[in-house]
Amino acid sequence: MSVLNGKKILLGVSGGIAAYKTASLVRLFIKAGAHVQVIMTPASKDFVTPLTLSTLSKNPVHSSFFNQDDEDAVWNNHVDLALWADLMLIAPATSNTLSKMTTGNSDNLLVATYLSAKCPVYFAPAMDLDMYKHPSVLSSFTALKSFGNIMIPAESGELASGLSGEGRMAEPENIIAFLEADLESKLPLKGKKILITAGPTYEAIDPVRFIGNHSSGKMGFDLANEAANLGAQVILVAGPTHYKAKNGLVKVINVVSAQDMYDACHEYFNDVDVAIAAAAVADYRPKVVALQKIKKAADEFSIELEKTKDILASLGAIKKNQFLIGFALETENEIENAKLKIQKKNLDLIVLNSLQDEGAGFKKETNKVTFIDQDFKIEPMELKSKESVAVDILNKVVLHFAKS
């Protein structure tokens, strides 16, 4: 799966003959799983039609500060467009557009949006060979790179003038490859292996019935997706759940029982850098599992239970350099119980959530957690979506490796 999958890309198209290539560029972005919005300068519409790019991107194309054909003259908010994007690409970037970007001359929607962008900005120059080497253009390249923008160098080949040389905009496939390589090189967890557990476990009573809990697995799957998005190699050991990994790079190991999960975790733990135990593992299981369905006969029925193996404690007992994160779902004495779990299970960090907090717990889209580290530093967080909580947890992982 491409690192561009799920990325929100703002494509700026300026007025050069290479604008015809943007149709292929948009198609490749969509194929990679990206979301694309296009901003065109008025001059670029002489080379490629807004209808073409709108159809391919599946979004309206913007080219002016307001829609002149609209009776209400709706404003195209350049700030909103800039804040929407995960990255901005200006391709082709003509000498005229590069000069405006350098000087801040925002007389069109594209340059105004560029000046408002807080995301990484890439530009792919396109012009004739003498223009490409002109001191004023070289000065624009230098200035834009000093601003933190990233240049995708032009290629050599036949130019619109009939000459052959440097100045030709990089081919769409090469632009995609450049972006993927650059983004991958900057992923904070690239090269790290992370083991994550998710969901409940089901402990069989007979071939039909089981002991389980209300965990949906969403928190663990959100963690796995976010970790993969940050470049980590992710192994997700998942109990019974309807969730699927959104990031195709996540390796999912499906298990059912606590023993299954224990075995899978120990198979991979020695080779990982981080383990995050987000699963709600059953503490007890039936001591004897009936081979046939138990018939409803007696008025009362009892099941003898035995403890399951404590997966998190067993990992803490054998950990070497792994960064080990556990979860604690409590209903009383939350902080004290979480601190005890840190000590007993040799954890580096615990993510505490309480069923007393509204919006937290099983089968919810949100969670309210408190981080407690091995030094007992307590950091309460606000109620957030589970996706946002996953980001906060992975930020702790990134910070750990940044310090080490």
UniProtKB/TrEMBL annotation:
Keyword Flavoprotein in the entry? The reply is: yes
Q: Which reaction does it catalyse?
A: (R)-4'-phosphopantothenate + L-cysteine + CTP = N-[(R)-4-phosphopantothenoyl]-L-cysteine + CMP + diphosphate + H(+); N-[(R)-4-phosphopantothenoyl]-L-cysteine + H(+) = (R)-4'-phosphopantetheine + CO2
Q: Which residues form a coiled coil?
A: 291-348
Q: Which residues cross the membrane?
A: none
What EC identifiers does the entry list? Answer: 4.1.1.36, 6.3.2.5
Query: Which parts of the sequence are annotated with region: Phosphopantothenoylcysteine decarboxylase?
Result: 1-193
Which amino acids does the record list as binding CTP? Answer: 283, 293, 327, 341, 345
Q: Where is this region: Phosphopantothenate--cysteine ligase?
A: 194-404
Name its pathway.
Cofactor biosynthesis; coenzyme A biosynthesis; CoA from (R)-pantothenate: step 3/5; Cofactor biosynthesis; coenzyme A biosynthesis; CoA from (R)-pantothenate: step 2/5
Bound cofactor: record note: Binds 1 FMN per subunit.
Keyword Metal-binding on entry: yes
GO BP terms: namely: coenzyme A biosynthetic process; pantothenate catabolic process
Superkingdom of the source species:
Bacteria
Q: Name one GO molecular function term.
A: phosphopantothenoylcysteine decarboxylase activity
What are the Flavoprotein domain coordinates in residue numbering? 7-178
Q: What does this protein do?
A: Catalyzes two sequential steps in the biosynthesis of coenzyme A. In the first step cysteine is conjugated to 4'-phosphopantothenate to form 4-phosphopantothenoylcysteine. In the second step the latter compound is decarboxylated to form 4'-phosphopantotheine.
Q: PANTHER family in the record, alphabetically?
A: HOMO-OLIGOMERIC FLAVIN CONTAINING CYS DECARBOXYLASE FAMILY, PHOSPHOPANTOTHENOYLCYSTEINE DECARBOXYLASE
In terms of NCBIfam families, this protein maps to:
coaBC_dfp
Q: Under which name does UniProt file this protein?
A: Coenzyme A biosynthesis bifunctional protein CoaBC
Species of provenance? Flavobacterium tructae
